[in-house]
Each structure stands twice: as structure tokens, then as C-alpha cells.
Specification:
With 623 residues, the protein is of the alpha+beta class. 57% of the residues lie in helices and 10% in strands. The chain is built from 20 helices and twelve strands. The strands form three sheets. The chain has a five-stranded mixed β-barrel. A two-stranded antiparallel sheet has the order 1-2. α5 (108-142) crosses α8.
Length: 623
């Protein structure tokens, strides 16, 4: 299969050789699966992504969605509809969900591969299905039996879609300031009024009904997040047979004109303009944020997966281009103007750029899949083991969401650099990938918020710093394995030293918290989050070395120089493990040293951000 998106061999390396997901089949929850089942699932995921989704990627961006202001309808292009149908026909919406509600029940670690592949193939497409899935699971987990009966089967089949309605013009990251209102009716339903903005997939002509989870405040309830409830508001109110009935009082009043993800419509949604918008309470009153957080947290993990998919596709496109693009002469012929041109991959700086991209793509894949694998473990283990698995997931969510999305912007930029001027043009998909990447830093909690969440809720306020201690414990396990696998100490020592340095700063933050110096903590939150992301990537590379290095040695032996090059040119497995080892060596020795400068900056005690006022930024204009 001509797959320009993801190295499937690397997916299998992570799932089988790093995580050993085959071991999950020893637990009752996954006992119905075996290695062949997992292999078949990966093959199907790759086939649908490469053959059914990726061919429509460019057209969805060029065609975009069209809005009819007269009736508020939105038409999505066939380049969304056709691959979305293939997605549902394959049953992917329920790939990790229980067979009891119509899902496949596969491990979440394998579900991560599904998300990465589809994001690499057609990122905007995945947003429709992801929102439908998230809305469906809110109803499945918190809805009444009647809501589950009517909505879940239709959404699982792909007949009905879903959204996520939080943001209002005055209430973005500060959701507690929302003004959407719910008034209880004698029949137990609620009349909803208000406006929500930036609603992905809010209106479209693919689904016969669209299910809107809406955050609103019940009349009389307190201000702030504690007074928020959540409601299910369908576009069409189901009739007695569970089919779309009368049109509800909910309407798209406009769509955004965006830099990227143009195949996924972004709507302004008006609820109750005519005073007759019917909604149904989900869960209990005033538990809206608690319930919606399930979807928000899933989407933060999903954002990391989206970023990884786009990064992988950008890297592989750049690597493929670099092998075929002839430009300049080789190093040995630099002084010979008549020398033949060589592929640009042979130029040291291009090789460096490719290694830089690959070092993040490889490690992020491990980090994200490991996060989802620990979700699987938290479902099958008991006692302290379950607690540790859940704690690690909790800790990794903001690191992965923000770290991988930040890096995605840089990886797509570096990929464009390798393409040169061609990358800046629409001849190749790199410019589209780069335009699509930035939104991932913004939605599902802007990355600055992820840093604050990490240092406050996930670390300082976490009882006994369990999450952080589990994180360090796992790093130590990788270090021990690297030692026993024969990895050179020069690659291990920087990681050990980094953990010690990080510990010093965590102690300082705890001291500040005891003195209520939260300004100091929060002003450094993003820098700390970026530093710990780099450490997490280093952890993955040490772990990778502990597995890949001995396997490489078992194939290549002590070959060096031309003998080694000849073997990796002929032996695909030798080339794979060699590439993994080379990439980890690059990251730890040439990229990871930046970590220590970041930590030094945190210890500088300058805190200039705390001195700053609006007047410190002159030359501005009113906007």
C-alpha cells in the first residue's frame, strides 16, 4: 500500500514491542481478542485512512462548506461526506466502546492508532466523527434510559451527529461567565435561550439530526461554574418512534471564515430565538461542568492525537520529497561543478531537519499511545496499580495536549522548509497541514491553560504529588531498562540529571504555594510545561533505546561504516531499528540540552511578567 501518512511498522513497534498490548488479552475485558484481531484492525484502519479518506483531503479544503443565510443551512462537500460514510461503515465510531452499546471494545491504545491515522489522512473529517462520538458517550454515561434508547443507536450508526456547546462571545476560556439560560417546564423539559460561538459541525447536511450538548444556567442558579448545568438539545425533536420530528428552535446564524480546517464548518448557534427551544437535562442540575469535563478531557487527549497525526504526515511527506528532490552536489564533490546532483536528503542540514522532525514524531507516538494504554490498564487492574495508571493518564493529558500541538506547528513548518517554495504552494499538501495545525493549540483549552492545569491541579494540588511521582517512577523504569540493555551511559545520564533538576523546581513551587505566591507559579507555568514535555520525550527515547538498541545489535552485530550502510540498505528490519536508535541519539544529545536552559530560566527569579501592566506595551491601537 502506498502510504504517505504514517510508518505502520512504527505503530506496530510501539503497540507490540514497547507497550505489549497483546498482554491485555489476559484480562477478561479484552479476552475475546488476540494478536491477529489487533493486526486486522490496524490493516483496516490503514486501508480506510489511505484509500478512502486521504484522497479527499485537498478537495475538502478547496471546496469548503457553504452557508445559506436565508435558512441557516450548511452544505458540506462530498469530500467530507464520502470518507465520513466509509468511517461509519467501518464501525470506527465505536472502536473502543463497549459491545453493549454497539461498539467493538478494542483497547484504547489501538484506538489511538486509529485516531492518529485518520488525523494524518483528513484531520477536518475526524472532527465530525469525534464530536458525534463525544456527544454520544455523554448520553451513554449520564443520560436517562430514554435518552440512551433514542439517541445512542442513531449516533453509533452515523445517522445523527453531535457537537459541543460551551463558548459564548464573553465566555471563552472563562466558561463560568456564560449567559445561556434554561427554564424548567412543567413536563420536566427546559426552554433554552442563548448563543454559542465557534461550534464545530454545528450545522451540516450529512446527519439527519444533530445533537447539541449545551452548557446553560438554570434560572435562579448561582453564578460561576458551580451553577452550570448541561442539556441535550436536538436539531429535530425525536417523535414517538425515535425518528427526527418537528424542528427545534435552534439555528445556525453564521459560519466562521478560517485559516484552516475548512472542511469542518464552524458555526454560531442561536438557541431559543423564538422562545421555543426544547432541551433535556443531562445528569443532575448544576453538574454541567463535571459532566462536560468528560468530553473536554477526551478531546484534549484527542487533540494530542490529531497533532501527532498531522505531524507524522508532514514528516513522511518531507522525507519522501527529500529522497527524490535533486539539488546540489554531495559533500565529496563540493569542489566539482560538473558533479551530478544528489537527493537533498544527502545534505547534512536536510538530514538534521528530518531527524529533528522524526525525533518528535516517534516519541510523541509512544507518549500518546502509552497514555491511552494506561487508560486500558486503569480499567483492568486493581488497587495501587489501577491508581497509578489513572494518575499517570491524568498527569500526561496537559503535557500531551499542549506539547504535541505546539510541536505540530513547528513540525509542519520544518516540513515546508524542506519542500522549499513548492511547500508554500498548493501543489503539495504541506501548506494545508500547516494551516490546519494552529487550531490545535487553541481549542479544548488553550495551551496556556494546560500549563496552569499541570502545575496547579495535576501537581501541587494532587495529594502527595501521586501523579508526578508515578511519572518519575516510570522514567526510572526506562532508565533501569536502558542500563540493562547495554545503552551507553552518555545517553542515560542527561535524563537522570534532568529529573533531579526538575525535582528542585517542583520543591520551589511547593514552597511558593505554601506562601501563597501563586503569581510566581503561574507566570512560569508554560515554561515548566514545555520543559516537562521535553523530558517526557526524552523518557520515550530512553525507553525506545532499551528495546531498539539490543534488537539492532542482534541484526547488525558490530558492523560499522560502509558495512553497516550496506546492511541497512538491504535489511528492512535492520534499517528500522537503526533509524530508531539514530533518532534517539539525536534527540538526547542534540535537542534535549535545551531542557536545562529552560529550567535555568525558571530559576532566574526575574518574574518580569508579574511587573508588567498594559502600559508596558506602547504603540498599540484600539481593536
Amino acid at each position: 500500500m502506498n502510504n504517505p501518512l504514517i510508518d505502520t511498522r512504527d505503530i506496530k513497534f510501539v503497540l507490540y514491542e514497547i507497550l505489549n498490548i497483546d498482554s491485555l488479552t489476559s484480562h477478561e475485558k479484552f479476552s475475546g481478542f488476540d494478536h491477529d484481531t489487533f493486526e486486522a484492525a490496524i490493516d483496516l484502519i490503514e486501508s480506510i485512512s489511505v484509500n478512502e479518506c486521504y484522497p479527499h483531503f485537498a478537495d475538502a479544503d478547496k471546496t469548503g462548506c457553504s452557508f445559506n443565510g436565508a435558512d441557516g443551512s450548511v452544505t458540506v462537500p462530498d469530500s467530507i461526506k464520502m470518507p465520513l460514510k466509509a468511517y461509519y461503515d467501518a464501525g470506527f465510531i465505536g472502536i473502543v466502546e463497549s459491545p453493549e452499546i454497539g461498539g467493538m471494545g478494542l483497547p484504547k491504545a489501538l484506538g489511538a492508532a486509529h485516531g492518529e491515522f485518520l488525523s494524518a489522512a483528513h484531520q477536518p473529517l475526524l472532527m465530525y466523527s469525534a464530536l458525534a462520538h463525544g456527544s454520544m458517550m455523554l448520553i451513554s454515561n449520564f443520560g436517562t434510559e430514554e435518552l440512551k434508547r433514542v439517541y445512542v443507536p442513531k449516533m453509533m450508526k452515523g445517522e445523527w451527529g453531535g457537537t459541543m456547546n460551551l463558548t459564548e462571545p464573553q465566555a471563552g476560556s472563562d466558561v463560568g461567565r456564560l449567559t445561556a439560560k434554561a427554564v424548567k417546564q412543567p413536563d420536566g423539559t427546559y426552554k433554552i435561550t442563548g448563543q454559542k460561538i465557534f461550534i464545530s459541525a454545528g450545522e451540516n447536511d450529512y446527519y439527519s439530526n444533530i445533537v447539541h450538548p449545551v452548557l446553560a444556567r438554570i434560572e435562579g442558579d448561582p453564578e460561576g461554574t458551580k451553577g452550570i448545568s448541561i442539556f441535550i438539545v436536538p436539531k429535530f425533536i425525536p417523535d414517538e418512534n425515535g425518528n427526527p420530528g418537528k424542528r427545534n428552535d435552534v439555528k445556525c446564524s453564521g459560519v466562521e471564515h478560517k485559516m484552516g480546517i475548512k472542511g469542518c464548518v464552524t458555526c454560531t448557534m442561536n438557541f431559543g430565538d423564538d422562545g421555543n427551544c426544547e432541551g433535556y437535562l443531562l445528569g443532575k442540575e448544576r453538574e454541567g461542568m463535571k459532566i462536560m469535563f468528560q468530553m473536554m478531557n477526551d478531546f484534549r487527549m484527542g487533540t494530542a492525537t490529531q497533532a501527532q497525526g498531522v505531524s507524522s504526515a508532514a514528516y513522511l511527506h518531507a522525507a519522501s520529497y527529500a529522497k527524490g528532490r535533486l539539488q546540489g552536489t554531495g559533500l565529496k564533490d563540493m569542489a566539482n561543478p560538473a558533479a551530478p546532483m544528489v537527493p537533498i536528503v544527502e545534505h547534512p542540514d536536510v538530514s538534521r531537519m528530518l531527524l529533528w522532525m522524526k525525533s518528535y514524531v516517534d516519541a510523541q507516538r509512544m507518549l500518546i499511545y502509552n497514555m491511552y494504554y494506561n487508560m486500558d490498564l486503569a480499567e483492568v487492574l486493581t488497587g495501587d496499580e489501577r491508581k497509578e495508571a489513572a494518575g499517570l493518564v491524568d498527569f500526561l493529558v496537559p503535557i500531551c495536549k499542549a506539547g504535541c500541538s505546539d510541536r505540530n506547528v513547528l513540525v509542519t513548518s520544518e516540513a515546508m522548509q524542506i519542500f522549499g517554495g513548492y511547500g508554500f504552494c498548493s501543489d503539495y499538501p504541506i501548506e494545508q497541514m500547516m494551516r490546519n495545525s494552529k487550531i490545535l493549540c487553541i481549542f479544548e483549552g488553550a495551551n496556556g491553560i494546560q500549563g496552569m492545569d499541570l502545575v496547579m491541579r495535576k501537581l501541587i494540588m494532587n495529594p502527595g504529588q501521586l501523579n508526578y511521582n508515578v511519572f518519575k517512577k516510570k522514567i526510572q523504569k526506562a532508565v533501569d531498562d536502558a542500563h540493562s540493555s547495554g545503552v551507553d551511559d552518555s545517553y542515560i545520564e542527561p535524563v537522570e540529571r534532568a529529573v533531579e533538576r526538575l525535582d528542585e523546581y517542583v520543591v520551589r513551587m511547593k514552597e511558593w504555594a505554601g506562601k501563597f505566591m501563586f503569581g510566581q507559579i503561574l507566570s512560569g507555568a508554560t515554561q515548566f510545561r514545555k520543559a516537562i514535555y521535553m523530558l517526557a520525550i526524552a523518557w520515550m527515547h530512553i525507553w525506545s533505546l532499551s528495546v531498539a538498541f539490543p534488537k539492532m545489535k542482534s541484526i547488525v552485530g558490530d558492523r560499522k561504516g560502509s558495512e553497516l550502510k550496506a546492511m541497512i540498505a538491504e535489511n528492512r528490519e535492520a534499517a528500522f531499528y537503526y533509524s530508531r536508535v539514530l533518532t534517539s541519539r539525536f534527540y538526547i544529545k542534540e535537542e534535549f540540552p535545551q531542557f536545562f536552559g529552560m529550567i535555568d530560566g525558571l530559576f532566574s527569579d526575574e518574574w518580569t511578567a508579574l511587573e508588567t501592566s498594559a502600559d508596558a506595551f506602547p504603540g498599540t491601537v484600539e481593536m
